[in-house]
Batch of 2 targets.
Target 1
Amino acid sequence: MRHVMKTALLLLALAALPAAAQDVPPDTLVKNVTLEVVDLIAKDKDIKAGSRAKLVALIEAKVLPHFNFTAMTALAMGQNWTKASAEQKKELTEEFRTLLVRTYASALAAYSEQKLDFRPLRAKATDTDVTVNVRVLQPGAQPVTLDYSMEKTANGWKVYDVTVGGVSLVANYRTEFANTVRASGVDGLIKDLRAKNKSLEKK
Amino acid sequence: MRTALLCLLLVSGCATVEGERDPRDPWEGFNRGVYRFNETFDEYVAQPVARGYVAVLHQEIRTRVSNFFSNIQDLLIGANNFLQGKFEDGVNDWARFAFNSTIGLFGIHDVASDFPGLEKHNEDFGQTLGRWGAGPGPYLILPFLGSSTVRDAAGTAVDWAVQPVGEVRPIELRNTLYGLYFVDTRAQLLEASRILEEAALDKYTFQRDAYLQRRRSLIYDGRPPREKIE
C-alpha cells in the first residue's frame, strides 16, 4: 500500500513538472522574455553595432517559441485560409513568420533603450484568451502601447497578435493579403511575401 | 463635385483602381495621386532635410526643440480633453503646460513628465469629433500632411486655426517656427517610416489601414471595444 502511494506521488510529481513550466502566467511570461531579450541586446556588442542577423537569431531563439505563427497567419488570411492547401499554409506561415521577425527586430533595435512599463494583467484565472499590456515610455510623448493577444494552449501561453499603438499587426495585413489573393491567388501571395523577404535580406 | 474637380487637377491620380473598392476609401484613385505626390516630396525634400537635421544637431538639442512644440500642443490637448468631458485629464495637460512653461523654460525641458501622474496625452479636435459621435468619413490623403479622413481633416483645420504659434510676430519668426516644427516632426518619424517600409507589402494599403486602426484606438484612449477577428 505504501509502495502504491509512493508511486502515485512520484507520478504526480512528474506530471506536475512540465505543467509548472507551462503554467507561467501570460503577463509574467511577457515580462520575463522581454526583459531577457532587452538585457541580451544591451550586452551584445554586435547587435549594438547594428548586426541585424544576430538580432534576428536572438529573437528566433528567445521570442519565437512563444508565438503561434500558424494562428497569426490564419487570422491575417481570414476566409482565404480555407482556400489554401496544407502545403500553401505551411509556406505562407513560413514567409509571414520571416517578415514579422524582421519587422519585430527593426522595432526592437529602434526602441530597446526605452523604459518599459509592464501593466498588471486584467483577467480571470480561468481565462484562456487574454491581452497583456506593456507600455513603452518615451520622454515628452504619449507612451506607446504594446498589447500581446495570447491564448492558452497545451504548450503554455502563445501570442497570436501584437497590437502596437492601437494597430493590430494581424488586422493590418488582412486587407493586403485579401487584395493579393484576389488579384493573383494564394500562390501569388506566397510569391509576394518571398520577394519581400528577399529584398529585406539584402539590407 | 469637389472630388471630380480635384480629379481633373490630378488626372493621372484618378486612374481606375484594380479590384474591389474598399468602402472606407471610396476616393482611392484621388488619394493614390496625392500619395504619390507626397512620397516624391518626402523622398526628395522632407526626408533629406530631416536626415540632415538629425546629423547636424545633437540629440539633446533636438529633444529641446521637440519639447518646445510638444509643450504648446499640451494647451490644445488639454482643451480637447475638456471638450470631451475628461476634466481630470484636461487639468493634467494644463498643469503640464504650466510646469513646463515656467520651470521647464518655455517648454524646452519636459519636467512635468518626471511627476508621477502628469503623463502626456494624445488628443486633437479630430478625436474630439469622434468622441462626440462623428464617424471618420472617407479616408483622405492630404498634400504634405498625409493620411487623414474627412473628420480628421476638419479636426486638423480647427486645431491649426487655434494653435498659438500663428500669432507669433514678426512673420519671419513665425515661419521659422513652422518650418522647424515640420522638420522636427519628420525627424521623429524617421525610424517609424523605415519600419513601415520594411513591413508593408503594399505601403499605401498598409499605411491606410494602420492610420484608421490607430485613430479608432486613440478616440477610445487606447482601449477600443474589441473587434472580433475570426
Target 2
Amino acid sequence: MRLKLVSLALAGIMAAAPAMAELVVTSLSYRTGPYAANGIPVADGFADYLTLLNERDGGIGGVPIKMIECETGYNTEKGVECYEATKGEGALVYSPLSTGITYQLIPKASADGIPVHSMGYGRTSAANGKVFEWIFNYPATYWDGASIAINHLLDQNGGDLKGKKVALVYHNSAYGKEPIRTLQELAKKHGYELSLLPVDHPGQEQKSQWLQIRREKPDYVLMWGWGVMNQVAIQEAANIRFPMENFIGVWWSGSENDTLPAGDGANGYKALALANPGSDYPIYGDLKKYVYDAGKAAGSGDQIGYVLYNRGMYQALLTTEAIRKAQEIHGTMDITPAMMRDGMEALSITEARMSELGLPDFGPAFDVSCENHGGSGIAKIQQWDAGAKKWNLVTDWIAADRSIVDPLIEEDSMAYAKENNIALRCN
Amino acid sequence: MIYREAGDFSTTYEADSQTFPIRFDRYRYYLVLAVAFGVIPFLVNDYWANAVLVPFLIYAIAAIGLNILTGYCGQVSLGTGGFMAVGAYASYKLMTAFPEVSVIIHVILAGGITAGVGVLFGLPSLRIKGFYLAVATLAAQFFLVWLFNRVPWFYNHSASGQISVPERTVIGVPVTGPNTDAWAKYLICLVFVFACAWLARNLTRGKIGRTWMAIRDMDIAAEIIGVNPLAAKLSAFAVSSFFIGIAGALFFSVYLGAVEVGEVFGIQKSFLVLFMVIIGGLGSIFGSFAGAAFLVLLPVLLKNILVGTLGWSTDLAAHFELVIVGGLIITFLIMEPHGLAQLWRLAKEKLRLWPFPH
C-alpha cells in the first residue's frame, strides 16, 4: 500500500513537472541608492510588460514567465551576488542595466553559457558576435551613440565642425569612458576640439566641471551620465546659463526624471533616443486593462509613460521576442539558456511585428546575426519641452558613422579575443 | 566542565606561551581548520563561494591588516580602500607583465608593493596623530583612486579604464578568470587567510607587536623606555599595508575578476573595513574575523530572509537591511564597546567557571 502511495505521488510529480515549466527571466534592478531615480522606471517597465504577457497571453507560447528581481544598487559586488543567486534558478538571460556589472558578467556568463543582453550599454565591442558568443548589445552601442551625436552636430553646422569645441561630461567609470575613443577618432576626422570632464561617482559634485565649461565656453557639451549625475548636470548647466540646445545627453541621460528637477531651466535640453518617448501607444491600453487596473503594477505607478519606463518595457519586449524566436527554432516551449542564445542571434525586429505588439513606430527595425550582435545602431534626437513637460523628437533616425565605429569595434574585440584565446566564430 | 585549564600541564615555555593554552580551545581550532580545509571545499558551490565565503575570507585579511595598524598600533587609517586598490593594480600589472610567474607570487609581491606605498603615506604619522592622521590617510585614499583613474598605464590603456584578470593557474588548476571552480577560489583565499592570520598572530605577540602596543598606549612613555617610534609606526604601516594589499589583490583577481577603481575601492570600502575592525574588536585577530563575518554575512542573510523567505519587495528589503544592520551595530557597541571579540572573551571566562560560578 505504502509503495503504491509513494509511486502514485512520484507519478503525480512527474506528470505535474512539465506543466510547471517556467521561463525564468531575471531583473537585476536598483531601486535604492544614487542611481535609483533611473533604475526604478526601467525595473517597473520591465516587470509590467512581463506581467502583461502573463496576464493577457498566459506567458510566451503558453509557458508562464517567472521574473526574479534582485537588487544590485548599481554595485558590482551585489551584482555578482545576484548573478550567483539567480543563475541556479535557470535564468535564461541577464540584463544588469549597469556597464560595470556587465563587464563582470561577460567572462562569467560566457563560461557558464548564459546570454547577456546589455541593451545600449555594456562593452561596445561585444557587438562583434565573432568574438562575443554570449553577449548582445542590440539595438545600438555607445560608440554608435557618440557618432550619432556628432552626426547631429554636423547636420546643424552644415557638415563642418572645424574649430568647434566639444566637451564631454562623463561618469568617471567604464560606462562614461566608453565613448572617448570614438569621439577622439571623430575629432581627428572632423577637426573639432574635444575636452574631457570626468565626474566621480555618484555625481552630486560637479561645480568644478561646470566652472571649467563656463571658462572654456565649448560650443557643445555631450554627456554620458546616469542617476543623480544627470539631474545635477542639467541643473548646473542651467545655472551657468549654458545654451541648453547645445547640450546633448546619451540615451541614458534623457528621461523625465533627469529634466523635471531643473524646472524651466532644462528647457531645450537634448538627448539621444533609442526609441520614441511618450505613452501614446496601443499597448498602454492593454497595460491599463490587465496590469494597472488589476493592481499588478510593479511600482507606485508614477513612472508610467516615462522614457525609461518605455526603455524597460522595450528591454522586456526584446527579451520575450528572443524567447519566442528560440521556441520557434528549437520547437520546444521550455527553453534553456543555450537555446535562448540561438533565439537572440536569430532575432529580427520588423515594423510589422512592433505594430502587432502594440508599439507601432516605436523602436528601430533591425536584425541580429552571428557577426553582428549590435543591431542597427541608429537613434533619434529628442528635446525637452519644459512647459509641456514632455520630450519631443526633433530628428528622424540618424545612423552612426560606420567607417569610424566598425574598425574600432573590430580592433577592440580582436584585442579581447587575443587576450583570452577566443577562436573566432561565424566562419 | 570541559573548558578548563585543570589537568593541562605545560612543561615547556613553548607550551606555556602557545596561542591556545586550553586543550579544548586547541582542539576546537584544529577542528575548524579541518572543516575549512577538508570538508568545505567538497561542499562549496558557486553561490556560497562567490557571494559568501570568498568575500568573507578576503575582508578578513583586510580587517587583520587594518587591525594591526589601528587596533595594535593605534594609528587611525581611512586609506584602506586606496591601499587595496594598490594591491589590485599591482597584481594586475604584474600578472600581465610576467604571465609565466605564479599568481601566488604576484599576490605576495602586490602586498609588498602596497607595503611600500603604505610606508610612504605613513610618514606623516610621525608628526600627526588621531583625527589629523585620519585626514592624511583620507588624502591617500582619494589620491590613489584618482591616480588609478587618471594614468592609463595602470590599466594597460584599456578603453573602459577597467582592469580584467587573465586566467592563471596554480599547479594546473585555474584560480583566476571565469573558468575557476568554486572550490579552487575558496581554497586559494583560505590558504592566504590562514597564512596571514598565523603571521599576524605571531607578529603581534612578539617583540614587534609589543612595540606597536606600547606606541598605541602612550607614545611618549614608549619612547622613554626605548621604543623607536619611527621604526614602530612605519613597520605597523608596512605590515598593515602588506595584508591590505594581499586582500586587494585577491579581491580583484579571485573574487571580482574585473574592477573599476572608483566604484570598488572607494571611500565606502575604507569605512566598511574600519567598521569591521571596530565591531569585531580592536586589537584582536579573532575580532577581525568576527567583524568581517558580521558585515559580509549579515546583509546576505537578511536579504535571503526578507526577499527569499518573507517575499518582501527588493527595495523595501534593501532599505530595511540598512536599518537592521545599523541598529545592530549601535546595539552591539552600546552593549559591548570592545566589540565581538570581547563578547567572545567574556563567554570563554564564563565557560571556564561553568557550571559552578562563584
